[in-house]
Amino acid sequence: MKKPLVIFLGLRYLRPRHASQYVSFVTIASVLGVMLGVAALIVVMSVMNGFENELRDRLLSMTSHASVSSSEGLADWQAVSASLESESGVVATAPYVEMEAMLSTGRDLAGAIVTGVDPAAEARLTGIDQNLISGDFDSLTAGSGNIILGSGLARHLGVVPGQRVTVLVPQRGDGPGGFRSNLRRLLVTGVFEMGLQDHDSVRALIHISDAREIQGIDAGATGVRIRLDDIFAAPELMRAWQQANGEAYTVSDWTVENASYFRAVRIEKIMMALLLSLIIGVAAFNIVASLVMVVTEKRAGIAILRTMGCSRSTIVGVFVFQGTMIGWLGCLCGIALGVWLALNIDSLAPALESVLGFQFMPADLYYLTALPSDLHAGDVVWTSVAVLFMTIVATIYPALRAAGVEPAEVLRYE
């Protein structure tokens, strides 16, 4: 079957020639540059996706998907829980009591957010990962006077499980300045580590009955926490519930409470993509250089084609096709390499660490000890479209230069 003239000439000009080895070298370098840029972009985006997933999993392993609270507290939290559990998609609910406190060991003092929880309800609600806790979460029983500290808070206070801390909670009352304080001596029975400084350095957990006793309430709660079967449905579900139940309640969800973390991850992901796109940009400049040299070398041939009736648009199409083929050959090779690396990074990274003699994620510096990876088809498609666009743009100048060749001037000196 005969090929269209544009494709025939474009493929013919791609064949390496002995007399144009340098042009062939630049073409190969362009293909390799695009391949490495695409592969690096896919791998880095997959690793960033993995970090985002790990961050979300760790956040939700110790917190809820959404919550309902009130500035005056929820004396009717049972009714609120029943209303929430009747909503489609809600798996479980649990009350909590939250208060700001000062923790002291006699030597050091630190501010903290102390949350009173029901361990049985929290286990159903968040599926708390025991690997995040050094100690026994079930030690939080009613009236036990036990407390579990975040790792950063425990380090600041210099305490380990088995030692005691003093908890001071200010409350409105008839004391000096209209406040009084409640003091409790609690036993540290565990330390949890989420790998997030803002949580590990200020969070502490006690049993909800102990929290109620400290605050002087009988059966109320600060709010109700909620678990959904689809975490991404939380914002819409909570907005609908608030509209149905009035503005007296304050609703929140994990996307709002942890917005700064995920915003930072998104910004880092975008910046990494832009920086790695520079590799593809350099390869695109190589495509421009190789096509310009081909145009210079093939001036006589282009002039002959013009005298034989080829239009300027046909000449433009020949070099656009040639440059696109170079870019897409590199893109396809890069996609294959990048997808393979992203899917096997969990086994390739340890092998590379053993060869190079260092760890990418030292356990004493990072809360993760392995590179996570989550390959998204959308990232691959986005990368492919970006490479196609950059390749087409790179062919415009050489193609127009080829179309501008004047047959009379070229053939006059041939």
- The helix content, as a percent range, equals 55-70%
Taking the sheet with the most strands, its summary is: 6 strands, mixed, barrel
How do the strands line up in the largest sheet? Answer: 2-3-8-5-7-6
Radius of gyration: 32 Å
| Total count of domains | 2
Helices, by number, come to 15
Strand elements, count: 10
Structural class: alpha+beta
Q: What is the overall shape?
A: elongated
Strand proportion, as a percent range, falls in 15-25%
Q: What oligomeric state best describes the polypeptide chains here? A: single chain
What does the average pLDDT come to?
77
Helices and strands, in order, run as: HHEHEEHEEHEEHEHEHEHHHHHHH
Distance between the termini: 34 Å
Unreliable spans are none
Molecular structure report:
This protein is of the alpha+beta class. It has 2 domains: about 5-55 and about 260-410, no CATH class; about 90-230, no CATH class. It has 15 helices and 10 strands. Helix 1 packs across helix 12, helix 2 (about 20-60) runs antiparallel to helix 14 and helix 12 packs antiparallel against helix 14 (about 375-405). It is elongated.
